[in-house]
Structure prediction request, 193 residues.
Amino acid sequence: MKLVFLGAPGAGKGTQAKKLCHFLNIPQISTGDILREAVLEKTDLGLKAEAYMAQGALVPDELIIKIVEKRVKEPDCRDGYILDGFPRSLAQAEALDQSMSKKNESIDVVIFLDVPEDELIARLLERNRDDDSIEVVTERIKVYKNETEPLVEYFQSRNLLKRITGIGTVDEIFEKILFALESRKDSFKAQTA
Ligand code: AMP
Prediction:
């Protein structure tokens, strides 16, 4: 099963994607985690990405698309994966679509975690990450609205979107995700069998 987690910064994508990955026994591909590791290790990618991340801007599409294309070719992705934090722009979504259709593959479902903006800001300011100062948080939410939010419509029109209200405890939200995936039971069963 190949899934995408879509949602604003602070919506809980990472937490829920991690739980679902354990449940389905497929890898979580978090572009944010890959980038943070690259920054720590001061790799070429890390040096290129660092300034964008510190400002709350998106890292250029070409860089991100290459990372994801390389990662999904690894053997642990054979039975599926969860993309967490990618795609984040229309160009990324189109690149994903193209590279998947070349392989005769497609995304099975997109989980959209919907959380009101005041709640997002409160959560992000509690999180204490380097890029979670009030200025950077505001910028990340602005970038989300301009660049990423149009993907809700993009995936909805392809009939792939499952909208989940991301309010409640971690377990309550996870239950809602499992319930939403019930309608994709065939691929779901194959995965957990
Ligand atoms: P995240 O952990 O997903 O919130 O990502 C942290 C930061 O990494 C973002 O604010 C961006 O600067 C960068 N980033 C992560 N994923 C992407 C992506 N798909 N496209 C562009 N930039 C990204």
The mean pLDDT is 93. DSSP finds ten helices and five strands in the chain.
